[in-house]
Design goal:
The structure holds two protein chains of two kinds.
Chain A (H helix, E strand, L loop, with lengths): L1 H13 L25 E4 L5 E3 L16 E3 L30 E3 L5 E3 L7 E5 H5 L6 H4 L7 E5 L8 E5 L12 E4 L2 E3 L7 H4 L16 E7 L2 H4 L10 E6 L6 E16 L8 H10 L3 H14 L15 H5 L3 E13 L3 E13 L7 E14 L4 E15 L3 H9 L14 E2 L18 H6 E21 L3 E20 L2 E3 L4 E2 L2 E24 L2 E24 L24 E21 L3 E12 L7 E12 L4 H4 L4 E15 L11 E8 L2 E8 L9 E14 L4 E21 L4 E24 L4 E19 L5 E5 L4 E5 L6 E4 L2 E4 L3 H6 L2 H4 L10 E3 L14 E2 L7 E11 L2 E11 L2 E3 L1 H4 L11 H6 L13 H4 L2 H4 L6 E3 L2 E13 L6 E15 L20 E11 L1
Parallel strand pairs in A: 9-12
Antiparallel strand pairs in A: 1-2, 1-3, 4-5, 6-11, 7-8, 9-10, 11-12, 13-14, 13-47, 14-15, 15-16, 16-17, 17-19, 18-21, 19-20, 20-23, 21-22, 23-24, 24-25, 25-26, 26-27, 27-28, 28-31, 29-30, 31-32, 32-33, 33-34, 34-41, 35-36, 36-37, 37-40, 38-39, 41-42, 42-45, 43-44, 45-46, 46-47
Chain B lengths: L1 H16 L26 H13 L4 H7 L5 E4 L5 H7 L8 H28 L4 H29 L10 H8 L4 H15 L20 H14 L3 H14 L8 H4 L10 E5 L2 E2 L1 H4 L2 E2 L11 E2 L11 E4 L1 H9 L4 H6 E3 L1 H9 L18 E2 L7 E3 L22 E5 H13 L9 H11 L10 H12 L5 H8 L3 H4 L17 H6 L5
Helix pairs in contact in B: 2-5, 2-6, 5-6, 6-8, 6-9, 8-9, 9-10, 9-16, 10-16, 16-17, 16-18
Classes of the chains: A mainly beta, B mainly alpha.
Chain lengths: 1019, 506
């Protein structure tokens, strides 16, 4: 044992626990880290509207907690984001004869077979195979009806999860996560989460997946009902590992290391393609810029019309990132107690070539003690300490748009200091374009500390019958941000100033749950009654201060606000807070006869401070099940081992939306008179006054196991209506976007999953599983006089109407491209649309109403960003000591707006993707779907049409793992494995990833694949 | 043992029932209008300051779009914002974001001003004596600002909405769309009601809010509205009030008028004020002048940023000024580049005065850039006048909306079109303007002379030239440099988003 300890110590010391102190600065940008140049920005709740310049700079007066509505979208503060959906299909891996025990809400265990509702389970073996720091991503592909979207491959970026379709609009659609009985809402980790219900980056990565014993997904309203209002989008119940009684301690050590590398990097136009596009654009200025580049850098030997520079910007800014993880845990139990203690260290470098990494240390302990044979107490405690260096999101955006005819370093740019980065303005372009200054002169550091603590008392008042349980939990996190901007110059009078911004955000959520449960059996009748009460208090506080003119800014040791110019603090100190309360009373009755006939009902009375019209709501649910396989006519069937039919109905209120303001609010503003500032205020003329959003769901399902429990099947059909859905309504004239109860959204679909597992002989066993979900989303009612709700931006219009899915794209249908002058002169549009100045190379739109004019009446629905089907599958093989597992995932039916290409409407002198440069129309017969380069600059072709909207279907190999276990009596159990995560993704869409949360693709960064080798030792 | 459990149970349940459901009524992190103290007279000015903030906060595209169609200015920004260049050539696309933004920003500010009036009315209920008069004055000031916004939208779109309350939907139901004439009449009526409550001083004479609206601002707006209605007597009367007050005079240095020394001068009737907010408050309150700036320059002060290269003074205007032998007005209004000067040479203007050079009188050198030949000098702040540590083009520069020179020339035009002069002859008014510009007196003036003088004096300012030309149906002037103007080009089409949302049709 001693040598083993020494070995462990050596392993632990080799891990890099010391965290380097290197400040990283950054500019706040939207949810994806992208600034918004050339965008019209309107601040929700005020009348301030501005537009930005190419570098994304804008000046706008905003208060904390407001949302920015971009006429093209985002965050610096909060942005109305729409949670999108990728359906994950989990393949249920069945054990063989063991009955699975599901930990349902509030700690009640129940055999899964006796449940009347829709549950998917992910077991430990599938969780531990993942080389991913993020628990939420572990779920990807593993459960039917559950859709996980990676918000980015950037270290520390989040995931968004949607169960059974997009049922709510203005919030994140995230389900409720319960970790060891403590509710864990990922969207409470952003200030905007209180006032606008939006999701910040997921803080899931603060939990170590290796600590997880099981994940259960409660999908339908009736199952989630017991959790009440936060569960309207479903519940994911996570249990971490706990000990077993009377068991010798098991020590487990798990480590893996590997690297992540960018996949599916979009090919951008090279210098020759770009120059061709510029020459064909018809803009003298753009052609002149190419000439300027040739004058500055020389002409290429291969083509004298192209400058001698060909920069592949993505190649320059990408790198491979190393991943390491070490974890150790001890679980065991004595006669009266069980324990599980563990620690984990995780470090991941990002793929952007700057200080970009995520480093985390987790500690956890879980203790359950039987004080007497009728009283049980326990506590669990998870502490997470992470340091995150966020990448500069604008660097990705610039890399996409930067022209290839400019090098990274330009020795001739002598005005640039400290490094002679090139500056596109010197060639005549509007913006500087080079991503390197943002990467090198900014440091963004976040320190995240999180404590999830829970303690409970359970006592049997009447032995085995009446139990009382009380549980108190506290979820406390602090996020400290330290953003440093170093001063620099870039030539052409571009100067960046030094500044430090310090943020301190605290989130403190407290929950107190009490339940009283009565269980009894009378012969074959089994009855469970439960009454409960739950209270929650969620508070947030944010504080930030910015100082400028930092003395000694380049030394990391002096990157503190004390060294800033004291006069620069005025106006740069901000603080705000928010607090939400919730109170619930609930009751539940579950009855089964001989585990054959199941019936249950729940009633819940919830109050939430978010709703100003009426904080209370009453929500019932009821469900039933029939285990056919226990009936006499099927009991002895050898083919059918288990067959259960179930049906349920439930109503649930959803308060995962922004809080209503409840009255007109006031903002502080300034005006100048005679050179002096005067304070004043503006007040809103409309306000949100919302009531509960109600989710109502019918679910019909079937579970079966046949052929000696080797084949298991699940099928579900569900209809889920969200009534009083809170939708963002643009109030015309006042030009504010308010979230109001405005319509009804319906999601209905079918979930199918099947798993086959078998042992061929002692050495070889395998299992194959697959799942498929189809979801149809439709708006069934709109409470708006106009009968439709516009969203998106004016240039890229999305519209919600009855009978179509939510926020479908609304534009013109393309039927071809004008190939020659004759075609143009024969077209009625030449005369009827004179403003278009039609020419060969312009798009031909379908005249829907046949009036010879193309105008807004010819707009139709062009598709929707929600997928209509998703599927997943997995295979696992075990041969002697080898094991192999593969899982796949895919989806289809969704459309994506290629908003990156659409940026050309606002700035036309930037680079474009190679596909566009190659396939543009450049002569008769060269293309019947892409406009010409000159056409791209004309308003006629810039209208929203099929050209800008592409299919988002994709297929991905989600995970592949090969492992070898060394079994030797003298050694502890050792398993070696090699894992590849997301090694291959196939899609046709012209972007970095087809997984776009809201269908409007502004994502300019690639999603990486991760390859690791690992070792697991169990003693 | 069982008793203890029962006690615990009762305790637990009772504690739960008495949990704070009254907490549901608190809204942490927001300030509500119901929380303001309407009985406190010192808080009243807050609503007024908010109104000025709304008025002065303009999108960078707004002054560009309002003025670009005149024959004094071209779109510039060659290769960029093609639909903006199209607009300059009278090819209109109602999906263009700039039209929508101009509409949205103007109307949302109108609603904000109406909300400020509602707030001030609430205060007024509790005010007496002096404070009551002050409240009435503040309300009158906001009405003047609101009238200016209505003036702009009616000049641009002809038939638009008038909003007098902050519940526009009721007004739309009741009144529908108002014609341009109705909007102008609305402005005139509003000014008539506001003038008695406004101070009879120059804006820069006000001590409470220096540079704020006064009775003479209202008269100026009244004159402008009458001008649009072609009611020339009304123009002469209103402008005459301003002239006869004797309070206003032209700022002697035309070059510095548009720069820091000329801020809040005796010539200014309405001015948007911008500045740093000072070290006590921190931050800045600026207008974004970057679109007006040349795209490449070598400034006298290091690291002053250049601009985006939009809004180019037209060749027609420059040649017109050269033909008139203008000096300080041409030097001030236009920033030249060598490329632009070459173009002038090639067009036959070879013997150019010395001030036509790419170095401004303040020492900034304008380099050649592809996007335009010239830049506007009225929207230019010399780099040596920029505040320390502020590099953005035009930082802290004020934006003059209405000045005395315009009033004099409106008066002169009205008199030449038959109005009875109430404040001197047309020639007297015109000559005042000419003298400040260093030109000789004219013995008498025709309306063409006045329009020419307006062209020279007020070029590139808020579209005055364009709106004059369409008022006079002077299509030939607007059809210059290859453009062809017709009656259907006078007004912009309603933005698509507004057509979708409001009862408007194109």
């Amino acid at each position: 044992m001693k040598s083993l300890f020494r070995l462990l110590v050596v392993f632990l010391l080799s891990a890099q626990v010391a965290m380097a102190q290197k400040a990283v600065t950054g500019v706040v940008s939207d949810n994806d880290g992208i600034p918004l140049p050339g965008a019209t920005i309107i601040v929700q709740g005020t009348t301030t509207g501005v537009t930005t310049d190419f570098d994304g700079n804008f000046s706008i007066n905003v208060s904390e907690g407001q949302s920015l509505e971009f006429s093209f979208v985002g965050y610096d503060t909060a942005v109305v984001t729409v949670g999108a959906g990728n359906v994950i299909n989990i393949s249920l891996s069945l054990g063989t004869q063991l009955e699975e025990v599901i930990v349902t809400s509030l700690g009640i265990t129940r055999e899964r077979r006796a449940l009347g509702y829709a549950v998917s389970e992910v077991d430990e073996s599938q969780i531990s195979q993942r080389a991913s720091g993020d628990v939420a991503r572990v779920l990807s592909g593993k459960a039917s009806g559950v859709q996980v979207t990676n918000q980015g491959g950037i270290s520390g970026s989040g995931t968004s999860i949607m169960i059974r379709g997009m049922s709510t609009f203005s919030s994140s659609n995230q389900p409720l996560f319960v970790v060891d009985g403590v509710p864990f809402q990922s969207d409470t980790n952003a200030m905007g989460g209180f006032t606008s219900g939006n999701n910040g980056s997921s803080r899931f990565l603060d939990l170590d997946p290796n600590n997880i014993e099981s994940i259960n997904v409660l999908k339908d309203a009736s199952s989630a009902a017991i959790y009440g209002v936060r569960a309207a989008n479903g519940v994911v119940i996570i249990e971490t590992k706990k000990g077993t009684r009377n068991k010798k301690p098991v020590i487990e050590y798990d480590t893996y290391t590997g690297f992540q590398v960018a996949q599916n990097v979009l090919k951008m136009a090279n210098a020759e393609q770009f120059a061709t596009m510029a020459y064909e654009s018809g803009s003298e200025a753009d052609a002149q810029f190419i000439l300027n580049a040739m004058q500055r850098y020389g002409r290429s030997e291969l083509n004298p019309n192209v400058p001698d520079v060909n920069t592949d910007w993505y190649n320059e800014i990408l790198r491979e990132g190393i991943i390491t993880s070490h974890g150790i845990s001890v679980t065991g139990g004595g006669e009266n107690s069980t324990y599980s203690v563990g620690a984990n260290y995780f470090d991941q470098e990002g793929i952007l070539d700057m200080k970009n990494e995520y480093e985390r240390l987790n500690l956890r302990s879980k203790l359950d003690i039987n004080v007497t044979d009728r009283i049980k107490v326990g506590s669990s405690f998870i502490f997470s300490n992470a340091t995150q260096y966020s990448p500069e999101g604008s660097a990705w955006f610039r890399a996409y748009h930067a022209v290839p005819i400019m090098p990274v370093i330009d020795p001739q740019n002598t005005d640039a200091f400290p490094t002679r980065y090139s500056n596109a303005q010197l060639l005549g372009y509007r913006g500087t374009q080079n991503p390197f200054p943002d990467m090198r002169y900014n440091k963004n550091q976040l320190k995240v500390r999180k404590i999830l603590a829970n303690t409970y008392l359970e006592t049997e008042i009447i032995e085995d019958k009446l139990t009382f349980r009380t549980s108190y939990s506290h979820d406390y996190s602090t996020i400290e941000g330290h953003y440093v901007n170093l001063p620099y110059t870039l030539g052409n009078n571009v100067e960046g100033f030094s500044s430090i911004r310090r943020e301190q955000n605290n989130y403190s959520n407290q929950y107190w749950d009490n339940t009283l449960t009565y269980e009894d059996s009378y012969g074959k009748h089994n009855l469970t009654l439960m009454a409960g009460h739950s209270y929650r208090d969620e508070a947030a506080n944010t504080f930030s201060a910015t100082g400028r003119d930092i003395r000694g800014i380049r030394l990391e040791t002096s990157q503190f606000l004390n060294f800033a110019d004291p006069s620069s603090f005025s106006g740069n100190v901000n603080e705000n807070g928010a607090r939400i309360y919730g109170l619930s009373f609930f009751g539940r009755a579950a009855y089964n006869y001989d585990s054959k006939y199941l019936l249950y009902g729940t009633l819940r009375y919830d109050g939430s401070s978010k709703f100003t019209q009426d904080p209370w709501g009453l929500f019932p649910s009821v469900g039933t099940g029939w285990v056919l396989s226990k009936e006499d006519f099927l009991k002895d069937s050898s083919a059918l081992n288990f067959l259960k039919l179930r049906a349920s109905w439930g109503q649930l209120g959803n308060d995962n939306v922004g809080a209503s303001s409840g009255s007109n609010t006031v903002n502080n503003v300034y005006a100048i008179f005679g050179g002096q500032p005067y304070t004043g205020y503006t007040s809103s003329s409309v306000f949100t006054d919302n009531e509960w959003e109600l989710v109502e769901e019918f679910n019909f399902g079937l579970d079966a196991e046949t052929l000696n429990n080797r084949l298991s099947l699940n099928a579900d059909y569900f209809i889920r209506d969200t009534e009083n859905a809170i939708l963002p309504i643009t109030i015309p004239v006042i030009n504010q976007v308010l979230n109001q109860n405005a319509g009804t959204i319906r999601n209905q679909g079918i979930e199918l999953s099947a798993t086959w597992s078998d042992n061929i002989n002692e050495d070889f066993s395998y299992s194959i599983g697959g799942n498929f979900t189809s979801i149809k989303n439709e708006v069934t009612a709109i409470q708006n006089e106009q009968g439709y709700i516009n969203s998106g931006s004016a240039e890229f219009r999305q519209r919600t109407v009855v009978g179509e899915p939510l926020q479908s794209f609304y534009g013109l249908e393309v039927v071809g491209v004008f190939q020659n002058d004759t075609q143009v002169s024969n077209s009625p549009f030449l005369d009827n649309n004179p403003e278009a100045q039609l020419q060969p190379g312009d798009l031909i739109f379908r005249d829907q109403n046949g009036d010879g004019v193309i105008n807004d009446e010819d707009r139709v629905f062009l598709g929707n960003f929600l997928p209509t089907y998703t599927y997943g599958g997995n295979i696992s093989l075990n041969y002697k000591n080898w094991d192999f597992a593969l899982s796949i995932y895919g989806q289809g039916g969704n459309k994506i707006l290629n908003r990156k290409r659409g940026e050309i409407i606002f700035t036309n002198d930037t680079n474009m993707d190679a596909d566009l440069a190659i396939n543009r129309w450049h002569g008769e017969g060269t293309s019947n779907s892409y406009p010409s380069s000159a056409g791209l600059r004309k308003a006629w072709n810039q209208q929203l049409s099929d050209f800008w909207i592409e299919d988002g279907d994709f297929f991905r190999i989600q995970n592949l793992q090969v492992g070898y276990t060394i079994r030797n009596e003298k050694l502890p159990e050792i398993r070696l494995n090699f894992t590849a995560e997301r090694p291959l993704t196939f899609f046709k869409y012209n972007g970095f990833t087809p997984e776009i949360t809201n269908g409007v693709d502004r994502q300019t960064y690639p999603i990486p694949a991760v390859y690791t080798v690992g070792l697991n030792v169990k003693i | 043992m069982k008793k203890i459990y029962k006690v615990l149970l009762v305790f637990g349940l009772s504690a739960s029932i008495f949990s704070c459901s009254d907490e549901f009524d608190t809204r942490t992190g927001q300030l509500n209008t119901g929380d303001l103290d309407y009985t406190d007279p010192s808080e009243m000015s807050g609503a007024l300051v908010g109104a000025y903030n709304a008025f002065s906060t303009r999108g960078w595209e707004e002054p560009l779009l309002l003025a670009v169609r005149g024959d004094d200015v071209n779109a510039g920004g060659l290769g960029d914002q093609q639909p903006f260049a199209d607009t300059d050539n009278f090819i209109y696309n109602n999906g263009y974001w700039m039209y929508n933004s101009l509409w949205n920003l103007h109307y949302s500010d109108i609603i904000d001003l109406n909300t400020a009036i509602v707030q001030l009315e609430r205060y007024r209920e509790f005010m007496e004596g002096e404070d009551d008069l002050r409240a009435q004055q503040y309300i009158a000031e906001v009405r003047v600002l609101r009238a200016w916004l209505h003036l702009n939208v009616a000049r641009t779109w002809e038939d638009v909405f008038i909003y007098r309350t902050n519940n526009p939907f009721e007004e739309i139901e009741a009144n529908g769309v108002s014609s341009k004439e109705e909007v102008m009449q609305f402005i005139i009526d509003e000014m008539d009601e506001a003038i008695p409550n406004l101070p009879n001083v120059r804006p820069n004479e006000r001590t409470d809010f220096p540079g704020g609206v006064t009775a003479y601002t209202a008269y100026a707006l009244k004159a402008m509205a009458n001008l649009e209605l072609e009611n020339y007597q009304g123009v002469a009367d209103a402008a005459g009030e301003i002239i006869n007050s004797g309070r206003f005079s032209l700022y002697p240095d035309f070059y510095q008028l548009f720069k820091i020394p000329g801020e809040l001068s005796n010539e200014s009737l309405l001015e948007m004020q911008f500045d740093e907010l000072g070290s006590d408050v921190g931050g800045t309150f600026y207008h974004n002048f970057a679109p007006f700036g040349p795209q490449g320059w070598t400034p006298a002060r290091e690291n002053a940023s250049s601009g985006w290269g939009f809004f180019e003074p037209s060749m027609k205007y420059i040649k017109f000024m050269l033909d008139r032998n203008e000096t300080v007005r041409l030097e001030t209004s236009v920033l030249f580049t060598d490329r632009g000067i070459n173009e002038l040479n090639e067009d036959g203007y070879t013997d150019l005065p010395a001030f036509v050079s790419n170095t401004t009188p303040s020492g900034d050198v304008i380099n050649d850039y592809e996007r335009a030949y010239f830049a506007s000098g009225k929207h230019y702040l010399p780099s040596d006048q920029l505040p320390e540590e502020q590099n953005n083009y035009g930082s802290a520069k004020n934006f003059i909306v209405t000045r005395y020179a315009e009033v004099l020339l409106m008066y002169a035009e009205a008199v030449t079109r038959g109005a009875t002069p109430t404040a001197g002859s047309a020639a007297e008014a015109v000559n005042q303007v000419r003298n400040r510009a260093g030109l000789a007196d004219l013995p008498s003036v025709t309306s063409e002379d006045v329009m020419d003088e307006k062209f020279a004096e007020l070029a590139m300012e808020w579209g005055i030239r364009y709106y004059d030309m369409i008022r006079l149906n002077n299509y030939s002037e607007l059809s210059y440099d290859g453009r062809s103007f017709s009656e259907s080009s006078e007004y912009l089409p309603y933005p698509q988003e507004q057509v979708d949302a409001l009862p408007l049709t194109n």
